[in-house]
Specification:
Helix content is 25%, strand content 29%. It has 281 residues and is α+β, with helices and mostly antiparallel strands. The protein has a domain of 131 residues: Nuclear Transport Factor 2, Chain: A. Helix 2 runs antiparallel to helix 3.
């Protein structure tokens, strides 16, 4: 399931920020229903850092947040407002909700980790990176699901030239090239509603959240939707720009998209290399 500051994704002026309101975040991390947090394959230090983050937010503790937020963090609200670390610390944003009474799921993939917290239609993604000084939040993004499904889902159009056949992205290394190929293959399978091709491209823990949809989708429901020729509010959309950040066998991909209708989208993905192939976990 997003952005990181002028060094990663160019900062947007206020006009642009207003334009992307109603953005969509595809949260490609796992979570399961439950009243308490479930932790699988997670670094205990990241768990501790995430608890400290939630406490700092609840207490409006700027000093603690300063230590927890990565220098390259991008903070995106449910309204689509994008902020850098300096902007967040200058005036703390109002968050969609705190962790209390919410469902959460957490994973680590080497030096990259993620936490997704869900409460009703509100969803929060926190991507963590392991630095020399400890775990830091590099992405914070909120998504508010729709109350009812859209009549027409924004997408790439009938031919899906971008992102199915070409994408405006120049890889800087072999890892980025491989992830870019995997991304196009995944979107091609999704556009064709080909569940057989989609299945090996995502992990069993895959979950997608979008502000263009009224529901969360896991791997099973996504594939069932393909088989019924329904998209559930999540379709491939033309890529405008993307940045990738590799951490061993895990890659953070943040991107912006312009579908054939509706507002531009802001998307965060985590890619992991499993069995020699790059997949969305």
């Amino acid at each position: 399931m997003v952005p990181i500051d002028s060094a990663i994704i160019p900062r947007m002026d206020q006009t642009r920020r207003m334009y992307i309101r109603g953005f969509s975040a595809r949260i490609v991390i796992a979570f399961l229903a439950g009243t308490a947090a479930t932790v699988l394959g997670q670094d205990a230090n990241m768990t501790k850092a995430d608890s400290a983050f939630a406490k700092a937010i609840a207490n409006a503790d700027r000093s603690s947040l300063d230590k927890i937020l990565d220098a390259d963090v991008t903070w995106t609200s449910a309204e689509g407002k994008v902020q850098t670390k300096a902007e967040v610390l200058r005036k703390l944003p109002r968050v969609a909700f705190t962790n209390a009474n919410a469902e959460s799921k957490s994973y680590t993939y080497g030096d990259l980790g993620n936490v997704q917290v869900n409460l009703g239609r509100a969803h929060v993604l926190r991507v963590w990176v392991k630095r020399s000084a400890g775990w830091k939040v590099i992405v914070y993004q909120e998504v508010m699901s729709l109350e009812t499904p859209l009549a027409l889902t924004p997408g790439a159009g009938k031919d899906c030239e971008n992102p199915c056949r070409i994408i405006p992205f120049t890889p800087k290394n072999e890892t980025e090239r491989q992830v870019a190929i995997a991304y196009s293959k995944l979107e091609t399978a999704a556009h064709a509603h080909n569940s057989a091709a989609f299945s090996p491209m995502v992990g069993d823990e895959f979950v997608a959240a979008s502000s263009n949809s009224d529901k969360l989708q896991d791997k099973r429901s996504r594939m069932e939707g393909f088989d019924r020729s329904k998209d559930g509010g999540v379709l491939p959309t033309p890529l405008l720009s993307a940045r990738m950040f590799a951490f061993g066998d895990a890659v953070l991909m943040v991107s912006e998209h312009k579908p054939d209708r509706g507002n531009p989208l802001r998307v965060t993905r985590v890619w992991v290399k499993r069995g020699g192939s790059w997949i969305e976990p």
